[in-house]
Amino acid sequence: YFNREEALALSQRVIGLYTLTLNASTVQLNEFIRHALSQLTTTFDSDLYEDFINTWGTHVITRSLVSGMIEERAKVPQCFRIYDDASFAHCIPFSDRGSISSNCTYYTGQIHVISKRLLGGNMEIDNENEWKRTLAVGPALLQVLEMVPWYDFIADNAAKQNLMTIMWYRQTNFDFIQAESSIGSKNDRKSDDSNSEDEPPTPPKRMIIPPYSKARTDQLD
Which InterPro entries does the record match to this protein (predicted)? Predict the structure, then answer.
């Protein structure tokens, strides 16, 4: 954990980046997801649709960036103002920096690498060169570029609309929680910095299910 005098420096070294693409129009769904989709009813059942999303998610990824990554983190004193001085970044003793310049001696004594992890491949291998050889068969997903929602694979319009509704519900609920969390954090910082007695901002209104849905709303009360 960091106090007000410390910051986090992050190094993310990508190994063998490439794009993986899947043609959405020719996707062949396996028997398990086909069965799951066929069980979605035309009458809205929130439990059924929630279970579907909990099991299968909301989208199929059709284009993504995959590779391996070496990620390291270091504690840095705030007074060094790392974000204002690009040359200072070379003084952080990450594993890919090689020998540290003598000009960095003052800084390196106060900077500590606190974690290092591998993403993708066989992450139980300690040797980096051997680990890199395993990336071809087990790359990590680094970024989603394109995706297709599951409701695009549903022919029945009522079931399609139901799945769209539960996805909207989840996203709105997530946004609501994020907004409340953000307001709480801002108020905490305001209290810590100035002990302000101003009234806190009004939180966002409670979400509702859109009128075209047959979903129950009693769960929100």
Answer: MACPF
Q: Structural domain tally of the chain? A: 1
d(C-alpha 159, C-alpha 41), whole Å = 6
Residue 1 lies in a domain: no
Q: For the whole prediction, is pTM greater than 0.90?
A: no
Region for residue 55 given its phi and psi (left: phi exceeds 0; alpha: psi -120 to 50; beta: otherwise): alpha
Q: Which domain holds residue 198?
A: 6-220
Task: Quick: pLDDT tens for 53-95.
Answer: 999 999 999 999 999 999 999 888 776 654 446 667 777 888 8
In a domain, 134, yes or no: yes
- Give the residues of the chain that fall short of pLDDT 70: 1-4, 79-87, 184-221
Taking the C-alpha atoms of residue 205 and residue 221, their distance in angstroms, rounded to an integer, is 13
Domain membership of residue 46 (yes or no) is yes
